[in-house]
Design a protein that fits this description.
- The structure holds 2 protein chains of 2 kinds.
- Chain A is of the alpha/beta class.
- Chain A contains 17 helices and 6 strands.
- A 6-stranded parallel β-sheet of chain A has the order 3-2-1-4-5-6.
- Chain A is elongated and about 90 Å long.
- In chain B, helix 2 runs antiparallel to helix 4 and helix 3 runs antiparallel to helix 4.
- The chains are: A alpha/beta, B mainly alpha.
């Protein structure tokens, strides 16, 4: 056997193993019990596939032979630099900043897929129309995913504060997309041997990538911050698709399988998220959510009734059952540890305590679960919307911390509300509702909450962590008095 | 012997179809509580693009191809390493309060009634 076929055998075998390990790893991630081993299995697949990729050096184009040592050197540097920085950042990032971190990593994947396509295009390495069309399609999706993910990051990080909206924006965006497709179409036309070209091929390729990147930016700019999780999920699926398509161009089934699995999984996840918000994916992408004039406050009867943190804490200590509804505001105040400390006090006093998580709590589906897990809350105390929503009406106290839109009853009753129809947690049906909130402001979606004005609701104003500390002290104080 | 892989038209479509179906089925069974780690985990999986980047870079024969190939590997490696680091951190945090870790305690109706 020649060195070339040995190299091909090794790469073929490891890539096959990697594809299997990815599928098995994702399967194991479907339960919290086996999930940590799932990511380990998938990681093992990645490691062997990357190491085996060095065997490509025995199987390169004749033109690349003189540059081989330089290329290998560049590869090692790129692997260590890219992998090292991302690893370090991933270990360091706060759990609350996780959505924007995933956006960044996802953009990198899209960029890599686009860069692979660029090498193929500039080098004229795409034999046949099918190859060329698939390369361009993967490049388009990858480039949109790159620039779009960066905008999503900027929005979540607070670099871009307001959605940018101008009249006729969607039409303009459509024109840019059609323009990009036209350049791609022209590239295919040129490749088939057009006699005279408007622009030399390399310039056309630059124009194509430029348009695609601009479209990714334009498409993401008008979307509100509250919708970013859905957008990141869409781009995650898009990157998967781009990787799968480039895998086809390179003749690498591992890329095809991994990419397409993520493409399908990401699409399903996107649909689930949009469903949780009772909106279609097209609605998220193309209607300017939150841009509508906000609610008239006079519409809502009653007034907000403030109460002291200590009183609320003691009331919960003597309640039979409490359901906690945490939201992003809790995480922003770094109050998860304090919350669990308070909950442990209640549990010790034989109060039944459960956590109710809305599908879109936090800035990413399931992020609230992760944040509670980080604080040490056991996952068998955590319940999802469908499983707990009927329990509110038989519960003594609903404690809402840092959540707003997900408990707004307007979603059930008020047809004019932008969140009308979104499934909400029925916290308003509890006998008593306490809302811990920084001030009288509105939620992330910028909508007035009718619950805050309800008769059975009291407001506890203050920073979530500080309020919880006062509640803990009040309940501990009771215990101390009883002992004395 | 020849171990090179040739994938043409319909074979590619069959691979795509089966992979898409597998992804759909596998993810359909993930409980909502794991959605964030899952998004991050699937994000990690498409980091395999780094292998394609290595292929492109090693086959580069001009400075332009080398430069773009370098970025392909750089970005792909970042996707893979970063995706693994954050997913691993998140999954390590999930724990139960001790009494019998019933696997699907979040599923409807499967919760044991308290006596």
């Amino acid at each position: 056997m020649t060195m070339t076929s040995i190299a091909q055998l090794i790469i073929g075998t490891t890539d096959l193993a990697a594809a299997l390990l990815f599928l098995y790893g994702l399967k194991r991630m479907s339960s919290p019990v086996t999930a940590p081993s799932g990511i380990f299995v998938a990681g093992l697949g990645m490691l062997v596939a990357v190491l085996a990729s060095f065997f490509y050096l025995f199987d390169v184009d004749a033109a690349a032979k003189p540059h081989l040592m330089v290329n290998v050197g560049l590869g090692v540097v790129a692997l260590i630099a890219g992998g090292g920085v991302a690893w370090w950042a991933g270990k360091k990032v706060a759990m609350t900043a996780m959505p924007q971190m995933v956006a960044i990593y996802n953009g990198m994947g899209g960029g890599a897929a686009g860069a692979i396509a660029a090498v193929e295009l500039f080098g004229g390495k795409t034999p046949g129309t099918t190859q060329l069309v698939v390369t361009l399609l993967g490049a388009l999706i990858g480039a949109i995913s790159l620039s779009g993910s960066l905008i999503a990051w900027a929005k979540l990080q607070g670099v871009i504060k307001k959605p940018l909206r101008v009249a006729g924006q969607q039409y303009f965006n459509l024109v840019v997309l059609l323009g990009t497709l036209a350049v791609a179409g022209y590239l295919v036309f040129v490749a088939q041997g057009a006699s005279s070209q408007l622009l030399p091929t390399p310039q056309l390729i630059y124009l194509f990538f430029g348009c695609a990147l601009v479209y990714g930016i334009l498409m993401t700019l008008p979307i509100g911050g509250a919708d970013m999780p859905v957008v990141i999920s869409i781009y995650n699926a898009a990157t998967g698709l781009a990787v799968g398509l480039e895998g086809f161009v390179l003749g690498n089934p591992a890329l095809m399988i991994a990419g397409m699995v993520v493409g399908a999984a990401g699409t399903l996840l996107t649909l689930l998220m949009a469903q949780a918000m009772n909106r279609s994916v097209a609605n998220v992408l193309f209607t300017n959510f939150g841009g509508a004039p906000t609610h008239k406050a006079g519409h809502i009867k009653g007034s907000m009734k403030p109460t002291a943190a200590a009183d609320a804490g003691i009331a919960m200590r003597y309640a039979k059952s409490v359901i906690v509804v945490p939201g992003y505001g809790l995480a922003a105040a770094q109050g998860q540890q304090k919350l669990y400390e308070f909950v442990k006090l209640l549990l010790a006093a034989d109060v039944s305590v459960k956590f109710a998580i809305h599908p879109v709590a936090g800035r990413m589906p399931g992020q609230m679960d992760v944040l509670l897990a980080e604080a040490g809350v056991p996952y068998d105390l955590i319940f999802q919307l469908d499983d707990i929503n009927d329990e509110f009406k038989t519960t003594d106290v609903a404690l809402i911390i840092g959540a707003n839109d997900v408990v707004n009853p307007a979603a059930r009753t008020d047809k004019g509300s932008p969140i009308y129809g979104m499934p909400i947690l029925n916290a308003d049906q509890a006998k008593q509702v306490y809302v811990v909130k920084r001030g009288q402001g509105k939620g992330y979606a910028d909508i007035v909450n009718a619950l805050f004005y309800a008769d059975n609701c009291n407001m506890v104003y203050g920073d979530a962590a500080a309020v919880l500390t006062m509640m803990i002290e009040a309940v501990r104080g009771l215990g101390a008095k009883a002992a004395a | 012997m020849d171990f090179s892989i040739q994938i043409t038209g319909f074979v590619a479509l069959y691979i795509f179809m089966l992979a898409a179906f597998a992804g759909w089925v596998i993810i359909g069974h993930v409980p909502a509580i794991l959605h964030t780690p899952l998004m991050s985990g699937s994000n990690f999986v498409h980091g395999i693009v780094v292998v394609g980047g290595m292929f492109a870079l090693l086959n580069a024969s001009t400075v332009q191809e080398q430069t773009i190939g370098f970025f392909a590997v750089l970005l792909g490696a970042g996707n893979a390493a970063g995706g693994y680091a954050v997913t691993d951190r998140m999954l390590a945090m999930f724990q139960t309060s001790g009494h019998k870790p019933t696997k699907h305690s979040h599923a409807k109706g499967s919760r044991p009634k308290a006596v």
